[in-house]
Amino acid sequence: MTKIDPLRSLRPVTEEVLEELVDRATVPSGKPLAYDVYASNHELVIEFDVPGVTAEEMQVEVDDRTLVVTATREPRTGRAVDVIETGRQHGTFTRRLFLGERSDLARLTATLKHGGPSITSPMTAETNRRRIDIRVSTLVPVETDASVDTAA
Question: Residue 29's pLDDT is what?
């Protein structure tokens, strides 16, 4: 249960007390970005959740076939800011995802919408995937004679 002091805003807050409150209120960072991946209209779509982060606070890169998304969310600070409680994670978050051979890396796009980047990649129709038939072995197992004494 969280206690809320309704008179808190009437009391003067020193810079020292404010720093202590911000330190205690900061949620540890380091958890990876939440995401969904799906295919729609011959495109691979990856949507990330990072509400409150601007496009300038995000970075999207491709390293070989690995998509690297980094976002930074800093807690609000300053003389006019009195942090009462925070439940969002702060810091720098990174997620790495391997993009398969069917992703067209040259035509990747990133759009900020609904609180996070949405990465889309057209999917190529070509694939090296094929079915391999399983053959049943026709070898007859060799029977052993249990009555033969091999200790002699």
Answer: 47
